[in-house]
Amino acid sequence: MTTRLHLFSLAATTAVRKGCFPDDETLDERGVRETLACGLTEWLPADARLLCAPSALALATAALLPRPAQVEVALADMDYGRWHGQSLGDVASAEPDALAAWLQHPDAPAGGAACFSDVLQRVGAWLDQLAATEHASEIVALTHPMVIRAAILHALGAPAVAFTRIQVPPLCRFELRRAAHGWHWWPAR
User: Fold this and answer.
1) Are strands 49-52 and 138-143 parallel, antiparallel or unpaired?
2) Model confidence at 1, in pLDDT bands (50, 70, 90)?
3) pTM value > 0.85
4) Is 75 exposed, middle or buried (CB count within 10 Å of its CB: 0-12, 13-18, 19+)?
5) Could you tell me if 8 and 179 are in contact, meaning their C-beta atoms sit under 8 angstroms apart?
6) Which SUPFAM superfamilies match (predicted)?
């Protein structure tokens, strides 16, 4: 019996399109158009359990779908602390060493808040819990790039330092399958 987990990356927000660290923004008009145009509603499996991160962006995305989503705290984005909403260029100018450390070391905090290792631990525990409780189910999770990176690394048993090497574009789907021998990363079709 296989559990299929479809991790769907949320649309880019105004801040992200400007090269800023994510802030808790909702969908703007462009994000709504792009989300509706990406085919999520048409693709959404009828029998899949629908989950979403607790962010304004995830909740607004879920509101566009034909059925309600359950909020899952484990799908929450990384806390970027004082970097929330700031441009990458501004952070690079003001805190070059902190930014460089964060980009190279999964235990370095982002903006004095969380580090990627925290996200990896949270998401890994959630995936392990799903493996123990879900049997032959299909789950769609609306979430953020850092969460998707963490899920992929956990599934592969890859080192946390590889988090910057996984690209997660907006409005893309990544599939993990859980079988007897653990989680596997599958191409999303």
Assistant:
1) parallel
2) low
3) yes
4) buried
5) no
6) Phosphoglycerate mutase-like
